[in-house]
Amino acid sequence: MLRNGLVCAILLIAACGHKTPDQQLHEAADAAASWSATLQMTAETWLANSVPRLFVLATVDAANKAFDQTGKDVAQSQGRQELRAAIKGQLDIAEAAAGDLKKAIENNDRNAVAGCARRFAAVHSVLQQLEDKRK
Question: How many other CB atoms are found less than 10 A from the CB of residue 112?
C-alpha cells in the first residue's frame, strides 16, 4: 500500500513538472529578455559614468554565453515554428547589439553605446510582448 502511494506521488510530481515545448521556448525567451534588460541597464549605467568599462565588457561576455545557450535551446525546440522564429529574430538582434556594445565600449563611443541601449530595450519589449500573449 505504501509502495503504491509512493509510486503515485512520484508520477504526480513528474506529470506536474513536465513542460510543453512552447513553455520551454517561453522560458528561453524570458532568459533572453532578462539579459537584454541587463545589457540595456549596463549600457545606460556606463553612460552615466557609474560603472567601469571592464564591468560592461564582463557583462557582455556573460550575456553572450546566455544568448548562445538560448539559441541552442530554440534551435532544438519542438515548439511552434512562428514562436521559434520570433525568439530567434530577437536573439539575433540582441547578439548583434552585444557585439556592437563591446566595440563601442572599447572605442569609448558614447553615441554608439546609447544606440545599443535602445536596441536592447526594443528586444526586451518584443520578448515581453511574446510573454504577455502567452498569459
Answer: 16
What are the pLDDT digits (tens) for 39-69?
999 999 999 999 999 999 999 999 999 999 9
Q: Which domains does the chain have, with CATH numbers?
A: 20-134 (1.20.120)
Tell me the C-alpha distance between 133 and 50, whole Å: 36
Placement of cell 512562428 in the chain: 82
Task: Assess contact for 105 and 58: CB atoms under 8 A.
Answer: no
Q: Which long-range contacts (CB under 8 A, 24 or more apart) does 85-88 make?
A: 86/126, 86/130, 87/25, 87/28, 87/29, 87/32, 87/127, 87/130
The identity of residue 66, as a single letter, is A
| C-beta of residue 40 within 8 angstroms of C-beta of residue 121 | yes
User: For the chain, what is the radius of gyration of the CA atoms?
Assistant: 19
Q: Which amino acid is at 10?
A: I
What letter would DSSP give residue 134?
A: H
